[in-house]
Amino acid sequence: MNREPSIGFVSLGCPKALVDSEHILTRLRAEGYAIAPSYEAADLVVVNTCGFIDAAVTESLDAIGEALDANGRVIVTGCLGAKDHVVRDLHPRVLAVTGPHACEAVMDAIHVHLPRPHDPFLDLLPPQGVKLTPQHYAYLKIAEGCNHRCAFCIIPQLRGDLVSRPVGEVLQEAEMLAQAGVKELLIISQDTSAYGVDVRYRTGFWNGRPLKTHLTPLAAALGELGVWVRLHYVYPYPHVDELIPLMAEGRLLPYLDVPLQHASPRILKAMKRPANRDDTLERIRRWRAICPDLILRSTFIVGFPGETEDDFGQLLDFLSEAQLDRVGCFTYSPVKGAPANALPDPIPEAIKQERQARLMALQAAISAERLRARIGQILTVLVDAIDEEEGMAIARSTADAPEIDGQVYVEDGAQLPVGAFAQVRIVDADEHDLYADLLNTH
Ligand code: SF4
Fold first, then answer.
1. 146 lines ligand 1 (CB under 6 A)
2. Does 358 sit in the ligand 1 pocket, CB within 6 Å?
3. Is the pTM of this model over 0.85?
4. Among the listed residues 189, 196, 193, the one whose alpha carbon sits nearest the alpha carbon of residue 214
């Protein structure tokens, strides 16, 4: 009997790249290719790369080299694929290189080097496609590319301007995921608030119902599916205010991941990010007045060229006032091709590290206090995994996104099914995580 042609797959990078990997894997399974568990068992290996920062480029180039050594037949795709020469200079043996969000181009390259089997396994394909996340949560990408031109970023060069997916298509995918048992949808794109601006918010259709291609109606419709809906990469445009009442009503998770990057107007200007520190603080105050349970996550860059001690002090003051729940902090590192590389006054590495440590120490105290305030609360959590040895369930509340935020450790929760909701009482907290007693399952 002929064996199915078999593809090895390596997926690197951010959730957006993960969604691209899911689309490619879905297409491969739809066409009857097998997914190989090891390089040796594969007829060909696809490496979906990341090219965002230099460390990611190195990791991607290493992964390509490893696949070439172990298998010899490698197709490269993803963000680094946009820089064809970087890949080919180091690894001239790769069979093909395609860019990010190029499912068709990867499939064409695969067809050339490993012809598709005669009898596609369409019937065996789950309607929601192949998912790389656990069964109970899924990333839902609503747009690709970005219209901003932040000085430190090359995403627009790699992925182009914003292109929104049709609203009906997004909702159909969300509905299929919910029907397949997904309990939490994580909405992602480069700039989620900008959804629809490229098509002038045109009206689309979902199950015969007219809906604007705009974040507010999309989020409201997602809120009807009966699953957790969590919004990521929401830049604070004015219309984001419209989402807060939906969160207060329990239709969306009271959670916003707002990438602010800095608080000093001078640095924000140099970064080419349209923002105003006082406006942002005022907005946060208004949001919390409408939805007191709102959890805010953000990311910041310290050590951007020209950042003075005063600029950095303004950032610390902002954090003290804003009292954000979760914060990620990166030291600035130049990315090949980014306009910020030409800026004067680079900050020495030691100062960058020192500022990062000071920021994280301040934020750790804020996060710890905000978590401590939750001791005694009764919360609904979603079980991610079981720790058999400790007899605990490892879960998350509405305040915690998978992978990036903290966890809720549920005592005596080992019998809970993964993907189930449960009610717990919070009994303890540290800087990152919560500890809870099990009350009941939903
Ligand atoms: S908003 Fe700025 S940082 Fe984010 S993807 Fe667009 S250009 Fe890059």
1. yes
2. no
3. no
4. 196
